[in-house]
Q: What sequence folds into this?
């Protein structure tokens, strides 16, 4: 998994995170689930493709649950802006 999602990418996605949300803690949390990024979902996807899908789902939930967008309206297109996206892990909530 660290080949796909390394520390530099973590820092890029979560520049405003609270200190409790660090990369090493994230790795420790996902290590408790050996099947996470550790098995192919089907014959349709490789192990790497499955891991990317699992990571994107987990990260979307983490950003939603801990993001700084809660009181911000979406843009006219219905989506949040880039600054809002990078506000993930700004609230200290037990997410991972």
A:
């Amino acid at each position: 998994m660290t080949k796909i999602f390394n520390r530099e990418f973590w820092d890029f996605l979560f520049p405003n995170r609270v200190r409790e949300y660090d990369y090493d803690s994230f790795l420790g949390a996902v290590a408790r689930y050996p099947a996470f990024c550790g098995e192919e979902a089907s014959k349709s996807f490789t192990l790497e493709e499955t891991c990317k899908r699992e990571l994107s789902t987990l990260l979307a939930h983490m950003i939603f649950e801990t993001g700084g967008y809660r009181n911000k309206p979406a843009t006219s297109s219905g989506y949040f802006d880039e600054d809002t996206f990078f506000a993930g892990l700004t609230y200290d909530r037990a997410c991972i």
